[in-house]
Amino acid sequence: MLQAFLRLWLLLALGLAAQLTQAAAADDAINLAGQQRMLSQRIVKSWCQIGLNVQPALSKRQLDEAIRRFEDNLKALDPVAAGPQARTALAGLRAAWSPLRTTALGVIRQADAELIDARAEDVLMAAERLTRALQDQSSAPVSRWVNLAGRQRMLSQRLVKTYMLRQWGVDNARLRDEMESVQNEFSGALAAMQQRADNSAAARGEIENLALQWEWLRAALATEGAESFRLILAEGGDAVLELADQVTRLYQQSAP
Question: Residue 104 and residue 60: Cα distance in Å, rounded?
């Protein structure tokens, strides 16, 4: 009887361990797909900063690193994107990435700024489809928060990217609307994160740091105009990115 009970307990423990491993793998996949959204915007932001002579050496390193990370993430996503919906979305992301990569590695010139932004939008939409497909596969409630916090990383880069494009003379209806819509989306998601009842003490602290840095970035945007603000916005966007990434990781760690 005791041996039968021990065997049953072992089977239950192994089953629970497998479920926890699967949940962690799902959150890792969501995080990676979410990173691709951010990297699509960071590539354009860094590309524009080089053209605008905003810390060109650092911006070039950031551009090269973003391209490398995107390709590494694609490789890492291949074995974890299970199911037909996720596989189709991953294939779409690969297809959208190739034109963006070609432009990002080419000559940096103002005449191609709208083109690289349009190609980054295709990658962003493809990465969003993949992220949602992976979230739909996950049964862990925290996956929604991993996705939400991860999207804040993208919005930080999207906001500064839009600013840099407009500084370089790119102006269209979408970009004019984007400055306000991105700020509204970020602020709404931040409020939801602040109100989440299950935040750990560490997560609460980082979210408050994120909120303070976000308000600083918004204040800087409100005083745009001087050329020196390009550097301030570039550094402020990266600070928001780092904090949003830390919150995303803390949500991952809180998964059961």
Answer: 11
In a domain, 10, yes or no: no
> Which range is most confident: 30-34, 109-113, 177-181?
109-113
Q: Report angle CA 61, 154, 163 to the nearest 5 degrees.
A: 75
Report the C-alpha gap between 83 and 138 in whole angstroms.
12
Q: Does residue 18 lie within any of the structural domains?
A: no
> Which residues on neighbouring strands pair with residue 224, listed in sequence order?
226
Domains contained in the chain, number: 1
Give yes or no for a contact between 186 and 221, defined as CB atoms under 8 angstroms apart.
no
In a domain, 231, yes or no: yes
Q: What are phi and psi of 254, to 5 degrees?
A: -85, -5
**Domain carrying residue 137:** 26-253
Q: What's the whole-model pTM score?
A: 0.87
Length of the chain equals: 256
Q: Are 154 and 38 in contact (CB under 8 A)?
A: yes
